[in-house]
């Protein structure tokens, strides 16, 4: 027993006096923790007023019919009208294709970067980060200029003899896909890269030591270990694609209509809040369900932070 | 070419066998950077149809941009909004991140998720939601409304970056300061804040960029005298390919690159320091 404990044991009165004190301290501690939590309240309040309340209101409006009473007509319209089915089809088609192409070209790039010595890799990462930080509008504009009929891509392609007539590369699905893959690629490469960096290289040595060739070691050891990163990256890309607006609006030239664009035109052109909000609710629920599933596998911060 | 036959990794694959990977990655990296960079020389072309390389170099489109009252007003709006957003989102976010980190309560986790929702909700919903509220509050097309909406969008980034900084900070140092008589606030400002400053600076720069580059929300809630640069650019793009946009793009690329350099200089602890 330490001298202090001996002293306590020797004097029951002192022990009894310590107990209420401890209770008081615990109470103070709780109060302080709650007060600390209170520091988040200004931010929370702002998010509540600007985001949560309006979205809740959109939810409500989506169930109000043209006559002002409760109805499901806004949702029925989505099911019954062919034009809406088309929009959902286009949105998912573009999102799947973009995600697929991003995986196909992003995974090898992330693998390449993860194999470099850290200093060189950081230098090469600038090529991923620069577009990541550059305004999305600027990059969309750049593609518009490059892909137009008299643009650089057509000019070079024709002078190199690859094709004869100027190809229609923009104001259609092709242009939209090129632009979207370009914008989404960093969102895939960054999480995949950080997952690959975290893989212990000694596993590969062990695999080689046990007789696996490079290809087999890659597919049976490295690839499975990189899957969580790939999964996280693909989901971010997919979810971002679902809600995309600017790039399809500019590069799609009115031929590629995604859900976000339909929501915007419902408000801007037709002032139809019912139709817009029902579309919004479907878009939001889809997005949140995907993110919720994703959060079971990877931390939300990593999903949201895009890996940096 | 002996290098080609050297082993490239733990699995004894040679550089030669992976040559395809190097070439493919090189092409992708060029593809990632080239479109943005090619806009820069194009913006100095004298022609109506942006040429590369320009046959006659000129600053015609820059003159057009700097001479246009409308573009200048939009630029001022965008810069003001971005600065104010930075000044609002950074303290709010840092305060929240610190509170959640220090309280160590379970509820903190929930609040954290609530505060990063603006990142998860599709932008178009934020846009039309804010549009609706602003009509009711009569702050549509005002700087106040724009800054509030952009602050909500920037908060998640500030929170995530600051929280990451706090994770590697030893809170016992703050305890030490307080046991020596410093108040909680004083301990935070003199002990904690200086040590997480790199995260805070990065967070502030991110908040600035979030606002400066934002298009969709600005399209709905900025307008009139307070139309942002991106809003006007987007509208101009829908109509035709205006070469003035190339010069504005170049300026935006310069601003982004400048901020990136700042983040590199001040947003990271220096080695050996």
From TrEMBL, chain A:
Topological relation to the membrane, as annotated: Multi-pass membrane protein
Top-level taxon of origin: Bacteria
Record keyword Transport present: yes
Compartment(s) where it occurs, according to its Swiss-Prot or TrEMBL record: Cell membrane
Domain ABC transmembrane type-1 span(s) in chain numbering: 88-294
CDD domains, sorted: TM_PBP2
InterPro entries in alphabetical order: MetI-like, MetI-like_sf
Family under the similarity heading: Belongs to the binding-protein-dependent transport system permease family. CysTW subfamily.
The protein, known as: ABC transporter permease
Source organism of the structure: Paralimibaculum aggregatum
UniProtKB/TrEMBL annotation, chain B:
PROSITE patterns: ABC_TM1
Membrane-crossing segments per the record: 20-44, 71-98, 110-133, 139-166, 187-209, 245-267
Domain ABC transmembrane type-1: start-end pairs: 75-263
Signal peptide positions on this chain: none
Source organism superkingdom: Bacteria
Bilayer topology: Multi-pass membrane protein
Pfam families referenced in this protein's UniProt entry, alphabetically: BPD_transp_1
Keywords, sorted A to Z: Cell inner membrane, Cell membrane, Membrane, Transmembrane, Transmembrane helix, Transport
Compartments it resides in: Cell inner membrane; Cell membrane
Homology family: Belongs to the binding-protein-dependent transport system permease family.
Protein name: ABC transporter permease
High-level lineage: Bacteria, Pseudomonadati, Pseudomonadota, Alphaproteobacteria, Rhodobacterales
């Amino acid at each position: 027993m330490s001298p202090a404990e001996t002293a306590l044991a020797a004097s029951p009165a002192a022990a009894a006096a310590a107990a209420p004190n401890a209770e008081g301290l615990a109470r103070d501690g709780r109060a302080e923790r709650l007060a600390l939590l209170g520091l988040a309240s200004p931010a929370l309040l702002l998010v509540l007023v600007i985001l949560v309340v309006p979205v809740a209101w959109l939810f409500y409006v989506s169930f109000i019919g043209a006559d002002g009473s409760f109805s499901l007509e806004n949702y029925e319209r989505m099911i019954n009208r062919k034009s809406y089915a088309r929009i959902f089809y286009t949105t998912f088609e573009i999102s799947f294709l973009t995600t697929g192409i991003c995986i196909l070209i992003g995974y090898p790039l992330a693998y390449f970067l993860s194999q470099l010595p850290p200093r060189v890799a950081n230098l090469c990462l600038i090529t991923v980060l620069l577009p990541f930080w550059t305004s999305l509008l600027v990059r969309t504009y750049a593609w518009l200029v490059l892909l137009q009929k008299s643009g650089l891509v057509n000019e070079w392609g024709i002078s190199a003899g690859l094709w004869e007539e100027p190809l229609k590369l923009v104001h259609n699905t092709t242009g939209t896909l090129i632009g979207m893959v370009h914008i989404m690629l960093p969102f895939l490469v960054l999480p995949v890269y950080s997952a690959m960096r975290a893989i212990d290289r000694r596993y590969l040595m062990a695999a080689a030591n046990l007789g696996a060739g490079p290809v087999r070691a890659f597919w049976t050891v490295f690839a499975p270990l990189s899957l969580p990163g790939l999964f996280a990256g693909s989901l971010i890309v997919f979810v971002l694609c679902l809600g995309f607006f600017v790039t399809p609006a500019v590069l799609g030239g009115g031929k590629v209509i995604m859900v976000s664009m339909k929501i915007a035109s419902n408000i801007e052109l037709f002032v139809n809040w019912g139709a817009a909000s029902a579309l919004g609710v479907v878009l939001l629920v889809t997005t949140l369900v995907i993110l919720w599933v994703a959060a079971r596998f990877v931390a939300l911060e990593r999903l949201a932070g895009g890996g940096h | 070419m002996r290098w080609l036959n050297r082993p490239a990794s733990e699995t004894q694959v040679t550089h030669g066998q992976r040559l395809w990977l190097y070439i493919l990655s090189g092409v992708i990296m060029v593809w990632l950077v080239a479109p943005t960079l090619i806009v820069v020389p194009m913006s100095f072309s004298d022609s109506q149809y942006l040429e590369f390389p320009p046959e006659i170099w000129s600053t015609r489109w820059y003159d057009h941009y700097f001479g246009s009252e409308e573009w200048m007003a939009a630029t001022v709006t965008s810069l003001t909004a971005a600065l104010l957003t930075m000044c609002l989102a950074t303290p709010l976010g840092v305060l929240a991140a610190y509170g959640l980190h220090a309280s160590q309560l379970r509820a903190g986790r929930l609040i954290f998720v609530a505060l990063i929702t603006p990142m998860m909700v599709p932008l178009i919903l934020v846009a039309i939601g804010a549009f609706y509220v602003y009509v009711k509050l009569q702050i549509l097309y005002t700087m106040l409304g724009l800054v509030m909406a952009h602050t909500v969008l920037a908060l998640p980034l500030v929170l995530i970056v600051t929280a990451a900084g706090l994770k590697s900070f030893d809170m016992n140092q703050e305890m030490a300061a307080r046991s020596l008589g410093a108040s909680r606030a004083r301990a935070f400002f003199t002990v904690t804040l200086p040590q997480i400053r790199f995260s805070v600076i990065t967070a502030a720069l991110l908040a600035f960029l979030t606002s400066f580059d934002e298009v969709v929300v600005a399209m709905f809630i900025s307008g009139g005298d307070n139309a942002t640069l991106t809003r006007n650019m987007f509208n101009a793009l829908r109509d035709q390919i205006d070469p003035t946009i190339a010069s504005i793009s170049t300026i935006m690329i310069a601003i982004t690159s400048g901020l990136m350099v700042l983040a590199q200089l001040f947003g990271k602890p220096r080695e050996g320091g």
